[in-house]
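ok trying again, last paste got cut off:
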Amino acid sequence: MSEHESSEHESSEHDVVEHWIDGAATSGAGERTGPVYDPARGVVARRVRFAEASDVDAAVDAAARAFPAWREVSIAKRQQIMFRFRELLAARSDELAAILTSEHGKVLGDAAGEIARGLEVVELACAMPAYTKGEYSENASTGIDVYTVRQPLGVVGIISPFNFPAMVPLWFFPIAIAAGNTVVLKPSEKDPSAAVWLARLMQEAGLPDGVLNVVHGDKVAVDALLEHPEVRSISFVGSTPIARYIYETAARTGKRVQALGGAKNHMLVLPDADLELAADAAVNAGFGSAGERCMAISALVAVESIADELVGKIAERMARLRTGDGTRGCDMGPLITREHRDKVAGYLDVAVADGASLVVDGRDPQVDGDADGFWLGPTLVDRVPTDSAVYRDEIFGPVLSVVRVAGYEEGLALINGSPYGNGTAIFTNDGGAARRFQREVTVGMVGINVPIPVPVAHHSFGGWKDSFFGDTKAYGPQGFAFFQQEKAITSRWLDPSHGGVDLGFPRHD
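nice, full thing came through this time. structure:
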């Protein structure tokens, strides 16, 4: 029996996270369940229902039934619901943070930060009047006006990853809903409870039933969404191989796609950089959320002349980090599953075999937590060869690799030679070098003395190369464009009309 299957007896021993379809929790037709761990204790805390294709059909049908009425709801009313959701989410963020920590393992402070970044996108969605309006050209030809309107797509699908179970759904569904679409969300089966919590909160804010639906599961649920003819678009965040599969499959069925893939983010440190700032940034960006971030710095590119000093400063800071239960004020929590912890730890043997220097070994950490938790402490590997899998692969854990280069040119070539192009950073006090770097680097999001350059909500998020597949990026102006289709109208009226007299103050309903 696999870890994703259970008998009826095993399911009854734990609470089961159910689907959320048409405004209510439902078991659906699927009998399979999967484990949801408490990573800090290393135990199954609950189980999650796995959808069959018929359950996805039911969710899509609910969204399709809700769409005609929802698209007719005025912008003013939609905006009121989003404002109400924003207030509820801000007031109850501690409740959601506790859910994130219990299922993902990230520390409470990091969970709160995740929610805060998601809340920014909700606030952007509240500004939907500015992003859903069209343009108007009066008298484009004699007596003819031309204008554009932006209309919703219909039913849209969202597939979100385990590492940000609240923030990534919040990147997509508030904008999709504000633009007049209805949604089927498939969260990660590893930490599914946040998605259902958010759907319930949207209902409390006044969202009609069927506008936001949540189905859980594995590849069966994913493929059912990708193949469903009523689903007009797919938004995805995850690894590059899966992002490519999502893009190719969904595009083949005629859907719009925004599939954000994996990363190997480099941080280039030049000799003139403030090394105290650079060391702080490397630790923060390398080990926050146990390195389970698509924007984590995993490759530190240090110019040789300052490499020894910088590595020493990073190691000093790492010695002060506390690894443990996310509810106990620690700096870093566990990894998501035992299997993932073991996979990440296995790269350290590869590093040594490839000739790298293991400066800080996190495989036997002192932890403030249960001994059975999925622990791996912060790890620092120096002099990593660029042909090593430790450098090439997206490890997705608390492993910071140091690659030494002779100078700026070699560092830039290394970054541009990577198949990934998600995020990067340069640390320098030379404005000319920084400006040259931002122009020459082939990466979608660039930080200058900022290690994790995730754009604020009114700019869009997304990488280049093998880190992104699709049409438009996440949130910001491109996010709104993704969830709308533009219609151009050419109009001529030969006779003016008279609307009568009405001295009342203009109203909108």
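cool. The two ends are 56 Å apart (CA to CA). Confidence is low (pLDDT under 50) at residues 1-12.
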